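Q: I'm writing up a methods section and want to include an example of the input and output format. Could you take the sequence below and give the corresponding predicted structure tokens, formatted cleanly so I can copy it straight into the document?
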Amino acid sequence: MELSYTTNASDYLALLQHHLERSVLGKRFVYFAWIAIASLAWMSVLLPYLKFGVIDLWVILRTALATGITFGFPFLYRWYNERVFGQLINERSVQGIAGPTLLVATSEVIEHRTKMTTTRASWQDVSGIVSTPQHDFISLAPLVTIMVPATAFPEREARVAFQAQLNKWRASAKPLSGRADT
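A: Here is the clean output for your methods example:
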């Protein structure tokens, strides 16, 4: 099976988000930041109330802010990441790695070719296949992932057939010892 497509900066931003959301360090940082920031927000409510014992407009405003931070942090964090990394990962910064891409997959190997790189691996080396509405991510190592944008397919049925075939080949490969399926 051969698939030819073009990648751009938004695809590489999605790849970075994929790694951040699935890495142990990335997950722990998000949870730590969420707990730390929400705790500080709630302390700004509780400490003045405990010291002065008065519920006034400022306590109500700080409570609303603390509630917003507590429940909105995951969305704010993702928005912040997309904004910051979106400024770093742009068409200029991915020049040379983004562009025409060829994915060749057989029952034995998967190969990913760009202008600058060629990645080839047996299905036993594939540690996971994750699909999102916009991309398919085929993980070969913790920081080596083949990204296939949904726009590479003319229609949804072609993408579903592609995903099914990849999963079939991966499942039929003899697993390596210690492989953690994702």
